[in-house]
UniProtKB/TrEMBL annotation, chain A:
It comes from the Bacteria. Keywords: Capsid protein, Virion. It comes from Mesobacillus subterraneus. This is Spore coat protein.
Automatic annotation (TrEMBL), chain B:
GO terms for cellular component: spore wall. Keywords: Capsid protein, Virion. It comes from Mesobacillus subterraneus. GO terms for biological process: sporulation resulting in formation of a cellular spore. It comes from the Bacteria. This is Spore coat protein. The lineage of its organism: Bacteria, Bacillati, Bacillota, Bacilli, Bacillales. Residues 25-81, 89-145 form the Spore coat protein X/V domain.
Amino acid sequence: MADDKKPNGIPNSIIDLLVNDLFKKNGINTEDVKSKITEDKKQAIRDLVEDLSKQVDTFLNTSNSKKNTDK
Amino acid sequence: MSEDKKWRALDHCDKGKDKCDDGATVLQDGDQIMKTDQQSFEWIIIKDSEGVDVQTTDTQAAVSLQLGLQAAIAAVISITIGDTDRGNAVVQDIKQVMKTKQRNTQKTIIESSKHVKVTTTDTDVAVNIQALLQILIAVVVKLDVL
């Protein structure tokens, strides 16, 4: 059954395509944006992404380990 | 009545006999125990049963994680592109993509059973959360922040 399979998620290539398209569609010049981001802001965003990545990992691993111990 | 012939988990339980009194809270009377969560409508109905162990996805945690990721994407766009019409349009477009998989319905019914272990996983929520993180990372990488 499908519930036995681990979710594969969406390939990163598709996500990249989507994000590229969204930026292009809305006329956003990424080079222009890049030059305007200060180092402080970059660090704040890095911290945010790192924290959320950890939370997602924990969430997904918890679901998977529950599944494995059941078998 | 045909009801009489049906096996019921608590038929052997007489009041006062402590072998059935294991301290567990049991709701019988043909009643059902329902668990409904906000976003992924998960129903687990347990009827005429004993010793049922249910393990389900922590949907509340999943929902708050989803909201956190959505807020983070909006925040990153706002910080980098600015709270402009363009920035808002990007956030709106991303929200449109994220809306596609917001609902999951699963029903589990346990009836006239003993010592059953149920584990449910909300695959949609897991995929959704993964996708949101992927979008967040893709945006951040594209803007050379990571």
